[in-house]
Write a structure and sequence with these properties.
Bound molecules: adenosine-5'-diphosphate, zinc ion
Shape: globular
Number of helices: 23
Largest sheet: 7 strands, parallel
Strand order of the largest sheet: 8-9-7-10-11-6-12
Number of strands: 30
Radius of gyration: 28 Å
Length: 724
């Protein structure tokens, strides 16, 4: 017998190994095996078992089977293959993204394992049953042999106490394991008519095996509908994957869902350490306790035992797309495939679906369900647009705050309500320069200027992470340095001066870097420990605070000005979403939006929460220019330290592509940031028109990339499919 093995390497194929007689009974698809390649040892995943060996090849033997059964389901392996093909990457890249390192290294020991080891260590003489378990665990170094409760039932009370103290297990009572599915205490909230209708429609569409787009204005009660559908799935003995775009969101939703789902809920994201990730991974696969996983992008790689429903909340969010490294997959798109493979229903929810998604729903590829009124019939927030140009001219401005915004903040605080302020630039000053000679600090490795961070007095590059001290004087002419433009740090500083007695929280990448800092900041705000929360897009996404009555958008231009065909879509979605953070429960909220583009159509669309106007405008542009959904896009990136090699190889690649796909190739050109960490970057844009086959086009792109790499050794080339 032979097996093909997926190795965690960017190699084009899977290697075949011979299975020795002794291992043939334990080797399975999806199992973790130890093999050699060249002189190195690797752990890999069994892709398939077969008997078709080629004549004359001396296959190397598998050295060992490390897992007790598969650690990746057959459905996931199919999904990996699909991802590798669709997103044009190596299946080894998918493996690296998919499996928690601790599982893959076989260094993960479940709590059961640790408990049993400790049990044996602290009892003078293990009982026969324990000894049997220990022997088995040691021999197989496997992970899921016995249940923890089984081990604990045979342990003495003293040992159980010790394990609790060491944090290996949580409070354990022999009669009722705390891991069993505890029925929640909370009573079910009854649906409004609109929610009931939406729920019924979704069920009907699920019955036809259609993915469903639930388009519901912010605060219309979408989450309540998800909860009901989750309970339905659990009642049918199936598991649920609940995807959110941002870790910050898992925090708040966890508390909300736990009240309803009890211990059946698990959370999965990258802020967990490898052992914790491995634990959740195994729980999802076992499916005993874990009925629902709430997670970010990477949780689509969990090998659920019996997946019945996938929810993709905030469907439009760009964080669902992985940018770097490969696989550059979109979790939403991948979830649709996972739904097909597992037979799970797929529900996407958003107040402002992506243009492609709404198009898919309108044209009948997906089901469409709409919820157009807010829960409790609270009116959508009243949006006041402040024209920064005229207000500045009238000097009705203090730093970055118009009088209008300042006065509204003051009024809200006086009423005892909370305020969220949105600004999507972090740091203190976004531009630093010397007014006498024009010097500006630039990153030595990237083609960008550095941002000034006042806390710590340093300059930093937001692309490569480089940091250097802020000079006291201009290093060229010795003049005084001017700091201009403002990031969240500086807004915070100004706010402190404006409202000295008010406590303010800042939520951005700099303030929320630790594992629990999100939770702490959001928790403090929810508890009313601060009156104002200021932050980057982290504050915009789906958060639900009932006491927030005012949202201020400090500078909408930073969104509106970005030069890209998706920019209007992104800005509309972000602005609408930020606006949706207020007036969620008690009464109508207020939004103040400062902009110097008050006359742009998008500003009116946000003021009126007019998704339809936004969509009509966008789809017309897309159609006229053959942008998605009227074509497929791929960006091909050429990267390298040697600028000449990068330019000429990109040129060559574009001309090879252009011959086969005339009129569909743009560039090579410079991406917005054309040098990152000393690597020069060129980009070729490929439009794949509906008249041509996508898989053939991708095959040709793959061929052209290979040819280019053959001619130039020092560069890397890769494709980004459906870029965002
Ligand atoms: P969305 O997910 O669409 O933004 P939510 O589900 O968060 O909306 O609902 C908005 C608010 O209204 C939440 O605070 C939620 O608890 C409340 N809510 C929604 N539906 C109901 C219901 N049927 N009964 C009681 N409260 C509800
Ligand atoms: Zn100078
Ligand atoms: Zn840099």
């Amino acid at each position: 017998m032979y097996i093909d093995v997926i190795l965690p390497l960017a190699v084009p194929k899977c290697y075949t190994y011979l299975v020795p007689e002794a291992l043939s009974a334990v080797v399975r698809q999806g199992a973790l095996v130890r093999v050699t390649l060249g002189r190195k040892f690797y752990n890999g995943i069994v892709l398939r078992l077969h008997d078709d060996a080629e004549e004359g090849i001396n296959y190397k033997p598998v050295l060992g089977v490390l897992s007790n059964g598969p650690i990746v389901s057959g459905e996931q392996i199919e999904l990996w293959q699909w991802i590798a093909k669709y997103y044009m990457c190596k299946i080894g890249d998918v493996l690296k993204a998919a499996i928690p390192t601790a599982l893959y290294n076989n260094s993960y020991r479940s709590r059961t394992f640790i408990a049993v080891r400790l049990l044996s260590g602290y009892e003078h003489k293990p009982t026969a049953k324990q000894q049997c378990l220990i022997d088995f665990l040691e021999r197989e170094s496997c992970q899921r042999v016995v249940s923890l409760s089984e081990a604990l039932e045979v342990a003495s009370a003293a040992v159980v106490n010790l394990l609790e103290k060491k944090g290996v297990i949580e409070k354990f009572t022999a009669e009722k394991s705390r891991f069993s599915y505890n029925e929640p205490i909370v009573k079910e909230s009854s649906f409004t008519d609109a929610q009931q209708r939406a729920y019924d429609e979704i069920k009907q569409l699920f019955a036809q095996s259609k993915p469903v787009l639930l388009k519901g204005v912010t605060s219309s009660g979408k989450t309540e509908i998800y909860v009901k559908l989750i309970k339905d799935a659990i009642a049918q003995g199936r598991q649920v994957l609940y995807l959110v775009p941002e870790i910050a969101l898992t925090t708040q939703l966890k508390a909300r869902l736990e009240r309803v789902l009890g211990d059946a809920l698990f959370v999965y994201h990258s802020k967990f350490n490898e052992q914790e990730r491995a634990e959740v991974y195994n729980e999802a696969m076992e499916g005993e306790r874990c009925k629902v996983v709430l997670g970010v992008r990477s949780s689509i790689f969990l090998s659920f035992k019996n997946l019945g429903l996938i929810i993709i909340d905030e469907q439009h969010d760009l964080s669902y797309k992985q940018q770097e490294p490969a696989p550059r997959y979109h979790a939403g798109n991948t979830a649709l495939m996972l739904g097909k493979l597992t037979g799970a229903n797929v529900l996407m929810g958003s107040a402002s679906p992506s243009v492609e998604a709404y198009y898919n729903a309108l044209t009948g590829r997906w089901g469409l369900v709409e919820l157009n009124s807010r829960y409790g019939d609270i009116e959508p927030p009243e949006v006041t647009v402040v024209d920064m140009v005229t207000e500045r001219r009238k000097r009705k401005f203090v730093e970055m705050f118009s009088w209008v915004l300042r006065d509204k903040i003051k009024a809200a605080l006086e009423r005892g309500e909370q305020v969220i302020l949105f600004h999507n630039r972090r740091g203190h000053s976004t531009s630093v320069c010397c007014p006498s000679c024009g010097w500006t600090p630039r990153c030595g490795s990237c083609s960008v200027t550095l941002t000034y961070h006042k806390a710590g007095e340093y300059l930093s590059c937001h692309y490569c992470g480089h940091k250097e001290p802020m000079p006291l004087f201009c290093p060229v002419c010795g003049g005084d340095i001017d700091t201009r433009g403002y990031g969240t740090e500086r807004v915070e500083e100004v706010l402190h001066n404006m409202f000295p007695d008010v406590s303010i929280l800042r939520l951005d990448l700099d303030s929320a870097s630790g594992k629990n800092s999100y939770e702490r900041i959001l928790g403090d705000f929810a508890d009313g420990k601060a009156q104002i929360m200021l932050g980057t897009q982290m504050v915009s996404k789906g958060l639900d605070f009932s006491n927030v009555s005012l949202v201020g958008i400090i500078n909408a231009d930073t969104l509106i000005d970005y030069p890209d065909f998706r920019s209007s879509e992104q800005s509309f979605q972000t602005l609408l979403q930020v606006a949706g953070r207020c007036g969620r429960k008690l009464r109508r909220g207020e939004v103040v939006m400062q902009t110097s583009h008050a006359s742009y159509p998008i500003v009116q669309q946000v003021v009126n929460s007019d998704y339809q106007a936004f969509y009509d405008e966008q789809i017309a542009v897309r159609r006229a220019l053959s942008y998605p959904p009227f074509s497929r896009m791929a960006f091909i990136y050429v990267k390298g330290k040697n600028l000449n090699a990068v330019s000429s190889s990109a040129q060559m690649l574009a001309s090879v592509l252009g011959k086969k796909m005339p009129g569909c190739i743009l560039g090579p050109g410079m991406p917005p940031v054309a040098k990152i960490s000393d690597y020069n970057i060129r980009r070729i844009v490929v439009k794949i028109m509906p008249s041509v086959s996508i898989s053939e086009s991708k095959a040709f792109i793959g061929y052209a990339i290979k040819e280019t790499l053959r001619n130039y050794g020092s560069i890397t080339v890769y494709a980004d499919i459906d870029p965002v």
